[in-house]
Each structure stands twice: as structure tokens, then as C-alpha cells.
Amino acid sequence: MTANTTQTLTRPAANGTSAPRPEQQTAIAGTRPRASSSAADAVLAYLRAQAQALAACELQVRAGEPDSVHQMRVATRRLRAALRSFRTVIPAADSDHLYAELRWLGHALGQARDDEVLTAHLRDLLRTLPPELLIGPVQARVQGHFAPRRAASLAALLEALDSPRYTGLLAELNQLIHEPPRGPQADAPARKVLPAAVRRAYRQAKRRMHRARHTEAGPARDIALHQARKSARRARYAAEAAAPVAGKPARRFARQMKHIQSVIGDQHDLVTVRAEARELGIGAHLAGENAFSYGLLHERAQHQAERLDARARDDWHHASRRKYRRWMK
Fold this sequence. Notes:
- By secondary structure, the chain is mainly alpha-helical.
- It has a single domain (19-324), classed as CHAD domain, CATH 1.40.20.10.
- Helices cover 74% and strands 0% of the residues.
- The radius of gyration is 21 Å and the shape is globular.
């Protein structure tokens, strides 16, 4: 991190510990809001906490710490979600460029993270196959398929973190935190503004889940579910930001949205794994190897994805129950 940003985005020592939970992050930032806080104070506390998390995770990514890419991606997504969810507090016109830069950073982190996830999923599927059904150098081919991709994506990520563009992103984030633009509801009570913003995010997730449920099974529904997941994730992060002022009900709702996000995320990963298994099988066939095992991997990934598809719809019915939403008035 460059010298012009260290005054606010400080780096803690790299000790291998996992990133703190959202409620802990706000406390670490030293500005935990109260029920009487203004909307601006609550939103800025959340943004400061995520900026600190971003700084901590950057150091861990550079050190090659396990799960650090994922945690840095989460901090980036939380920042983006806050900028989108609380536009009446921080106007979009004043944060659109920062949002776009965070999206660029998220893409660089996503490339590195996705290859990690796909490798793990394929290894998990391989462990479910009896040894006699692993025909040919299957594990070696999987490793050889992803190793260069993971190395390239990590190199690209480190290049992005060393770039002037990333330095500019940090400077812009610092400026927004220390000289925040004020929207029409910035001075309104947080206990009124933030729950309403969560409700809007939830309603978008509800619409997208409805669309996914009524889309024919196949690629179109996979895409619809992925869009619903994004909305559920935004609702979750908005609820996390509201939790210091809304309390336990907001945390309970956030946990429900996290569960939906996780189920649909696993379904999306398995859809991608299925495509990778097909590509691996083609490569094995062209190399003169037996592609039987890759067909089994493809089939198992498809069956698991279908089960998660059905589970997501059932779990949404539970997560959207009124008892989790009463606080969003």
C-alpha cells in the first residue's frame, strides 16, 4: 500500500488469523454506531470497517495467506453493496466511479478465487468416485489443467495491486470516507433509513427469485439464479451494515440471506464444474486417454447442481418468512 493511503488504511501484522466478522470490524474501526446515530454515521462506520478489512487482506494476499483472496473479495463486495444500497445517504453521482473501480478490483480477485473454488470442487467430486472408476491420470490432469491458470490469475492480481489504478482506488476510498458527500437522508436517523434500504434490497432479491423459479430448467434458470444470488448478497450486506443500529433482527435476517447466497453459490459453482469436466474429458480424449471418469464427474456435478436448485427454492421460502422481515419498516 502506498504512502499516501497508509494514514487511514493501515495494515495490521500478518499473523494468519481470519478476517473479523462484520460486527467486529466496525468495533475495530473504532466508530461503532448506536441506535441514535445518523444514517451517515452508520454507513460511514461500515465503509471504514470494510476499508480496514481491505487493507488487512491485501497484506495477506501478498503474503500468500490461505483464504486471503476470498476475504479481500468479500471486503470489496461489501463496499460495493453499501455504495449501492445507501444511495440516499451517499449519492450515486458521487460514488459511481469508486463503485466501478471496486468492480474492477473484484473481477481481478474473482479470477484468482474462482480457479481455487473449481479445483476444490473437482477434488471433492473425485473423492466420491471409487478408485476403480478413476481410469487414467485423472488427478494429474485436473492439477495440470488448473495450476497454470491459478498461477496466471494470481500474477495478474498482484500486478493489479501494484498498479496506479489500485493506488487511485484507495485514494478515492479514503477521500469518500473522510470527506463524504451527503445525500438527502444523510442526517436522518439510521434506525429509519437503513432498514428501509435493506427492504429495497430484499424486494429485488424476491423478484429475482420469483423469476428464477418460473424459468425453465437449464442455462436460463442458472443465470436467473445467479442474479438472485447477487441480490440476496446485497441484502445480506445491507443488513450487516444496519445491524449495529437494528440489532438482533438484522443479524438474523443477514444469516438467512447468507444461507441463500451459499446454496445458490454452490449451485453456480457446480454448473461451472460441469463445463470444466467436459473440457477435461475432451482434452483427455484428444490425448489418447480414456475420458470415462470425466463423464462421471460431469454427471455428478449435474445431479448435485439440480439438488441445490430445488433446495434454493425451498430455503428461500423459509428465509423470506415475515418473522425475519418485521424489523424492516
